[in-house]
Design goal:
The structure is a single chain. With 268 residues, this protein is mostly helical. The chain has 2 domains: 182 residues, no CATH class; 59 residues, Multidrug-efflux Transporter Regulator, Chain: A, Domain 2 (Orthogonal Bundle), CATH 1.10.1660. 72% of the residues lie in helices and 4% in strands. The longest helix has 37 residues. The protein starts with a helix and ends with a helix. About 8% of the residues have low confidence.
């Protein structure tokens, strides 16, 4: 069973790598990855349910090495999806503040679980039986109320925490990457304010208060085709920074307010 799962994990990683390359949109990438991971999760759970972990060493290997690989991907892509879905609509500085807040949560997780993380990083095995075998969950040690709702045939004291640790390491890299991109955009905007008079005229004085097309779609609840129509007909001012299209936050909120006023008038 363990060799079969290793082969399936290798296959999964190849599929996930292909999704990462093909799908540039974070929300679409996360949805497709989670759809794939759900299928693999069901497959692995069925193998465990059928009683294929016949020895304690196999059980420890599965819940310490193999299961966290799958579960960490589920946690990671789920978190990315919710991060991007709940990202604030507004200025680049507001978005940067949001990402930094998420980083602080990861730092808090690392600090709270530093003893466990040190155990994993050290390669120790002395506590593996307690941590990575089933039917002996210690709710005082685990500190996660959600564990009570899990099937104890499919989890141990620490396989979920280990998966969360791996996911947080990846999330940390993702958030640093997004913060770097925002900082780069802010620097570029400051350059435009000095070097490009036409862009400066479009952007006005508050260069950081920009919105992307995705944010506009979410705020106005319209389709991409409708947004294109509004741009083409001059209903929404916009400008290019590199290859990206950006909008002033105040213009979008003015359109939003006008559309809301029209809807209220129609209801009267």
């Amino acid at each position: 069973m363990l060799s079969h799962i290793t082969a399936r994990l290798n296959s999964l990683n190849q599929f996930l790598a292909a999704i990462e390359i093909r799908e540039k949109d974070y929300l679409l990438r996360s949805r497709k990855a989670l759809e794939l991971l759900t299928k693999y999760d069901a497959e692995f759970k069925l193998l465990v349910k059928q009683g294929n972990l016949k020895t304690q060493s196999n059980e420890i290997h599965y819940f310490k090495i193999q299961r966290p690989q799958l579960l960490s991907n589920i946690i990671y892509y789920s978190k990315i999806y919710h991060l991007e879905t709940n990202k604030p609509i507004g200025s680049l500085k507001k978005i940067r503040k949001y990402y930094r807040k998420q980083l602080k949560k990861i730092d808090a997780f690392f600090l709270e679980n530093r003893d466990f993380i040190n155990y994993i990083r050290s390669g120790e095995t002395i506590a593996d039986v307690k941590m990575f075998t089933r039917n002996n969950i210690d709710y005082i040690s685990v500190k996660e109320s959600t564990m009570a709702a899990l099937d104890q045939e499919q989890t141990t004291n620490f396989d979920h925490k280990l998966a969360k640790f791996y996911a947080c390491e990846r999330l940390e890299g993702f958030l640093f990457e997004r913060i770097t991109a925002v900082n780069k955009m802010l620097r570029k905007l400051k350059g435009l304010s000095v070097n490009n008079s036409s862009e400066r005229s479009m952007l006005g004085n508050k260069l950081e208060e920009l919105m992307t097309s995705d944010e506009v779609l979410r705020k106005l609840k319209i389709s991409e085709r409708k947004l294109q129509y509004m741009r083409d007909n001059g209903e929404i001012p916009y400008g290019y920074i590199g290859k990206g299209i950006y909008y002033l936050e105040k213009d979008i909120f003015a359109v939003y307010a006008a559309s809301r006023k029209n809807r209220l008038s129609d209801d009267e």
